[in-house]
Amino acid sequence: MALLEKFRQLAEAHEALVRTSTDPFRVTIERILSPTEAIVNGKQMILAGTNNYLGLTFDPECLDAAAKAVYEQGTGTTGSRMANGSFNGHAALERELADFYGRRWCVVFSTGYLANLGVISALTGQEDVILIDADCHASIYDGCRMSGAEVIRFHHNDPGDLHKLLRRLGERCTNTLIIVEGIYSMLGDQAPLSEFVALKKEYGAYLLLDEAHSLGVLGEQGRGLSEAAHVESGIDFIVGTFSKSLGATGGFCVSDHDEMELTRYVSRPYIFTASLCPSVIASTRAALRIIQTRPELRTRLWNNARRLYDRLKELGFKLGPTLSPIVAALFDRREEAITFWNGLLEQGVYVNMILPPAAPEGGSLLRCSVSAAHTEEQIDRICQAFESLRVS
Amino acid sequence: MTRYETILLQLYEILKPYEKEGQNLSDDTELLSDLGLDSMKVMQLLLETEERFDISIPLNIIPNVRTAGDFARQIEQLTEQR
């Protein structure tokens, strides 16, 4: 097969899709109006697929912090921390994140994707084993591949299956890293974390928890599922992102293991990429303060999530298994999901369309992510759009 | 019958639902091009095989598996390590 021949199948699939649908992979936001509204295809849309859980992208404190940083420190760092050095803001954000989680160490990465790549590939190597939940994010799979470790999947959210794998590994358990997520991005379901922590302790393995979708969303202080499930001390490494509830871009890992600090010297995704720009660092620090001082945002987020989840359930939609700010409507047929998604766009509602093989169990889903910034009226309009399309 | 052949026969049973009309499974059958397995089906196949042979299959072996015969060899090794 010639070098570019493999793209032919992809091109054909893409052409077939856009013959009957707006291209879901090229939706352009022409003008962003607020955390929950934008102009798309010349039309005002309610944004219900942004992961902007606390709606902080337009928070005045975050905006002011970012603007001040741009004027005082410039637009970018133009290189990696290893080569160019760190700005004060990088170090300050790492201290603040470590304090927030009550951990000794924190390392900040340029994206959430790179955080998983950087941490997993630094912690594990060819002699080690990684046990991952089958529904883990692509960044976790890619980090595993980069590490060279032996990678074994266990059934999604199934402590019994994990137990079986650990038992089979025997003495190798002490060389084993278990990886799970707090809230899973597609269906919004949560890991049975207490059971996973008990297993990792029983077998002497290590546990990495990705709180990308649960930071700021779960726990009284917003520290995620580990806080909500009261098992923080049982988690060895917590990875998170700035691109969801913190409204920016970037990623991090916190830990009490002293070796965390040493990963800076071996983690290629940390070393060989440009560091976060000052404005992103500044807005993230402001957002982290807000997470801790404005718990009412979480209350509003969950009220909105409950309003949407309950109403769509009442309308007969098949949804993810638990209430969550990620509200996913499941469709058996791919074509049905595509038609429905286009109908929502026409009605001024933007959600994420997830087609096979990206969705669990080969299904298709329309994934809404709720924000604290949504008004009740906006949630009701989203529900009305779903209802009208269901009827027609 | 060798151990490899026994495993291969059991593997054919798992692969049977993926067999296309007029196809006869053999150790040369290519899992992707002959059976048309996509990524979802490969994952399903791994789960079924793990259950059947009571083994854990590392994802790392996938690049080394092209045919049913390759897969049977890997299963043979994994069951020996058990």
Structure description:
Helices cover 42% and strands 17% of the residues of chain A. Chain A is an alpha/beta fold. Chain A has 2 domains: 9-47 and 295-391, Alpha-Beta Complex (Aspartate Aminotransferase, domain 1); 60-293, Aspartate Aminotransferase, domain 2 (3-Layer(aba) Sandwich). In chain A, the strands form 3 sheets. In chain A, strands 4-10-9-8-7-5-6 form a 7-stranded mixed sheet, sandwiched between helices. A 4-stranded mixed sheet of chain A has the order 1-2-3-12. Chain A has a 3-stranded antiparallel sheet with strand order 11-14-13. The model of chain A has no long low-confidence stretch (mean pLDDT 96). Chain B is an all-alpha fold. Chain B has a single domain, classed as Non-ribosomal Peptide Synthetase Peptidyl Carrier Protein, Chain A. Helices cover 51% and strands 0% of the residues of chain B. Chain B has helices at residues 3-15, 39-53, 68-81. In chain B, helix 1 crosses helix 3 (68-81). The longest helix of chain B is centred in the middle third of the chain and has 15 residues, at 39-53. Chain B starts with a helix and ends with a helix. The chains are: A alpha/beta (392), B mainly alpha (82). Chain A binds chain B through residues 134, 141, 144-145, 150-153, 155, 165, 168-169, 356-357, 362, and chain B through 38-40, 43, 46-47, 55-60, 82.
Summarize it.
Chain A has 392 residues and is an alpha/beta fold.
Shape of chain B: globular
Strand content of chain A: 15-25%
State the helicity of chain B in percent bands.
Answer: 40-55%
- Please identify the oligomeric state: heterodimer
Strand content of chain B: under 5%
Instruction: Name the helix and strand elements of chain B from N-terminus to C-terminus, one letter apiece.
Output: HHH
Our count of helices of chain B gives: 3
CATH homologous group name of chain B: ACP-like
